[in-house]
């Protein structure tokens, strides 16, 4: 590199960190389900798509913002509950990989159904957050990204509060800790799973709106799942903190490598670079950053 | 106990299948049957056999099969293009060896990772290979969009370029590799695969070289899957692009072995048959029921839905797949009536 511009470096870094927050947003949905039921939910991406597509399509039919939000929320809640009833319950006690395959099938069903109902065209989504760059000491930062990061932070705070200080949150943690013990003290696991899927549905609605505003609402939105997976591998499947730190790490290193290493490879490396980062990291620390040892 | 080394599948059934495949179908079939159904069925079956060795028998989940199909197709294309006078089958074998080497590299994480972590890491192969084939036009002889055209299929002066020829060509390769795979799972190596899958620690205790077995599974599986990719490109589509080997294709092969039955060679064929035939049936039924409203978009989406439902259904109702269903049916038919 001819001359290393520290301001430019910082700008890329901040941009990457903020992009990473968007990855974390999707990854958190995974963690919620994995923690409580041990299922790696590949359908998370299609849930993001369904949520955003429902919201946008309803909005386009003239429904006010909050009503559309509530409606999309209702769809996600119903979806979460029916998944627990029709897919999880019959597959209780099956090996985790079987459940993973089931969510793979589920992702096909949700993607297909969402687009069958709402069509396949691309929708623009305007959340009313303007994307003017703000300047902080010579570094340009997207305002939209900052708002998204704020929303993500609020959501994490909310989830943490929920886990720490509500009875359902306590039940969640009990189920995550030891399913048998949770059953023994009388917790109704199916209900907890349903609640976890509903929570993941709500998270995917938030992620869907923010990602949808970024990329437009279309099929490729469900591919954000592929962005979240390396984040999960890095952060551990069962740690919300890991999802956030992993997201930041992946986002930053992805953007930096795209800018500084990308030209060496001819560009376009963001599709697989995150996986390589995660893999190299895992070879050193198989449980990820914050994952439990035995999960590796 | 030397004989057990050479245990082939039940002879009468296999022979009957071969007679039908080589003797009956070429006579009664038409070019639609060969080109649209049988050739893709054979290629996908072979890919599923390869993945089944890795996932069904050795227990290492891979979500990157399509990448290895692509490696096979593009490597065979390049060997054929750049090394003059190389026999066609030699290019296949070389392509398979390239995929084998790559399979070992991408199999390395399996030495430390298990379960989901491994499954996710195999996605790296998927994205990396697709990126490389699109990015570097050298692989496609400087075609700007990475498209390659299959060479003429000629072996010892015999041309296999007609639709029936391509079918027979694919059939022969699939038969040979399937028999080898079938033998493999009945040898010590195959038992090692299963031991590693069922209980790694126990396998290590009884002296199975776990690490070597895993890498061997990746190597053999990659070889077979890549040859399936060559068939897909050379015998079925004739013109392929890297996007044809995307994540959906990888999932398709995973779905085949789930629907057909994990750890069953026969299941790979059942699953492939269902996955090739069912979109055709669905489009017929759909246009019959809905008429013009059933356009290609709707077909596409309903295919996804039905496929997804099929997977969930099989996982819940018949986790051992069509192969188990077949065994049960056979037992029922073979047992005497008073047993029923």
Could you state the order of secondary-structure elements of chain B as H and E? Answer: HHHHHHEEEHHHHEHHHH
Helix segment tally of chain B? 14
The Cα radius of gyration of chain A reads: 19 Å
Strand content of chain A: under 5%
Alpha plus pi helix count of chain A: 12
Helix percentage of chain A: over 70%
Oligomeric state: heterodimer
Q: Work out the helicity level of chain B.
A: over 70%
SSE-based structural type of chain B: mainly alpha
Describe this structure in words.
The complex is a heterodimer of chains A (296) and B (340). Helices cover 73% and strands 3% of the residues of chain A. Chain A is mainly alpha-helical and 296 residues long. The longest helix of chain A has 32 residues, at 6-37. The model of chain A has no long low-confidence stretch (mean pLDDT 85). Chain B is mainly alpha-helical and 340 residues long. Chain B has a single domain, classed as ABC transporter involved in vitamin B12 uptake, BtuC (Orthogonal Bundle), CATH 1.10.3470. Helix content of chain B is 74%, strand content 2%. In chain B, the strands form two sheets. Chain B has a two-stranded antiparallel ribbon with strand order 1-4. Chain B has a two-stranded antiparallel sheet with strand order 2-3. The longest helix of chain B is centred in the middle third of the chain and has 28 residues, at 210-237. The model of chain B is unreliable at 1-6 (pLDDT under 50). Classes of the chains: A mainly alpha (296), B mainly alpha (340). At the A-B interface, helix 4, helix 9 and helix 12 of A face helix 6, helix 11 and helix 13 of B.
Keywords:
heterodimer; A: about 300 residues; mainly alpha; ABC transporter involved in vitamin B12 uptake, BtuC; two-stranded antiparallel ribbon; B: about 350 residues; two-stranded antiparallel sheet; 14 helices; globular; disordered N terminus
């Amino acid at each position: 590199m001819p001359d290393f511009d520290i301001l430019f470096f910082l700008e890329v870094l901040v941009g990457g960190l903020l992009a990473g927050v968007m990855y974390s947003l999707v990854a958190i949905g995974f963690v919620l389900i994995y923690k409580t039921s041990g299922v790696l939910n590949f359908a998370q991406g299609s849930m993001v798509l369904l949520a955003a597509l429902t919201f946008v399509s309803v909005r386009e039919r003239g429904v006010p913002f909050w009503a559309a939000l509530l409606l999309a929320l209702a769809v996600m809640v119903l979806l979460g509950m029916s998944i627990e009833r029709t897919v999880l319950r019959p597959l209780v006690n099956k090996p985790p990989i079987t459940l993973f395959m089931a969510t793979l099938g589920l992702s096909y069903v949700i993607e297909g159904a969402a687009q069958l109902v709402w069509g396949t065209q691309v929708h623009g989504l305007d959340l009313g957050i303007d994307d003017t760059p703000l300047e902080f000491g010579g570094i340009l930062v997207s305002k939209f990204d900052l708002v998204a990061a704020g929303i993500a932070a609020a959501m994490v705070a909310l989830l943490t509060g929920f886990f720490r200080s509500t009875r359902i949150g306590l039940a969640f943690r009990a189920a995550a800790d030891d399913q048998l013990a949770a059953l023994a003290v009388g917790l109704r696991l199916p209900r907890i799973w349903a609640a976890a899927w509903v929570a993941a549905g709500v998270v995917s609605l938030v992620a869907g709106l923010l990602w949808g505003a970024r990329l437009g609402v279309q099929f490729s939105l469900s591919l954000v799942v592929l962005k979240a997976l390396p984040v999960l591998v890095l952060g551990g499947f069962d740690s919300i903190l890991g999802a956030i730190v992993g997201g930041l790490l992946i986002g930053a290193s992805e953007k930096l490598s795209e800018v500084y290493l990308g030209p060496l490879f001819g560009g376009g490396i963001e599709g697989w670079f995150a996986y390589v980062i995660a893999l190299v990291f895992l070879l050193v620390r198989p449980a990820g950053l914050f994952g439990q040892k035995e999960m590796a | 106990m030397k004989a057990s080394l050479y245990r082939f599948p039940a002879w009468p059934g296999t022979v009957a299948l071969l007679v039908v495949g080589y003797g009956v179908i070429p006579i009664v079939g038409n070019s639609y049957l060969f080109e649209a159904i049988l050739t893709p069925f054979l290629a996908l079956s072979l890919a599923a056999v390869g993945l089944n060795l890795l996932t069904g028998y050795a227990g290492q989940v891979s979500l990157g099969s399509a990448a290895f199909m692509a490696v096979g197709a593009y490597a065979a294309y390049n060997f054929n293009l750049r090394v003059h006078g190389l026999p066609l089958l030699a290019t296949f074998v070389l392509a398979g060896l390239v995929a084998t080497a790559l399979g070992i590299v991408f199999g390395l994480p399996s030495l430390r990772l298990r379960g989901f972590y491994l499954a996710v890491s195999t996605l790296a192969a998927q994205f990396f290979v697709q990126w490389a084939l699109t990015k570097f036009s050298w692989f496609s002889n400087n075609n700007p969009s990475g498209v390659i055209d299959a060479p003429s299929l000629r072996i010892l002066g015999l041309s296999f370029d007609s639709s029936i020829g391509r079918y027979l060509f694919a059939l022969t390769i699939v038969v040979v590799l399937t028999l080898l795979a079938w033998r493999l799972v009945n040898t010590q190596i195959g038992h090692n695969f299963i031991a590693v899958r069922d209980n790694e620690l126990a396998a290590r205790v009884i002296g199975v070289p776990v690490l070597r077995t895993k890498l061997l599974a990746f190597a053999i599986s990659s070889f077979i899957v890549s040859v399936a990719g060559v068939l897909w490109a050379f015998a079925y589509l004739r013109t392929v692009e890297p996007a044809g080997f995307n994540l959906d294709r990888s999932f398709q092969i995973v779905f085949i072995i789930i629907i057909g039955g994990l750890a069953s060679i026969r299941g790979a064929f059942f699953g492939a048959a269902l996955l090739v035939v069912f979109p055709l049936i669905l489009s017929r039924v759909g246009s019959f029921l809905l008429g013009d409203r059933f356009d290609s978009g709707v077909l596409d989406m309903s295919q996804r839905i039905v496929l997804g439902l099929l997977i969930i259904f099989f996982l819940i109702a018949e986790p051992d797949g069509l192969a188990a269903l077949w065994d049960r049916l056979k037992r029922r038919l073979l047992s005497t009536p008073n047993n029923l």
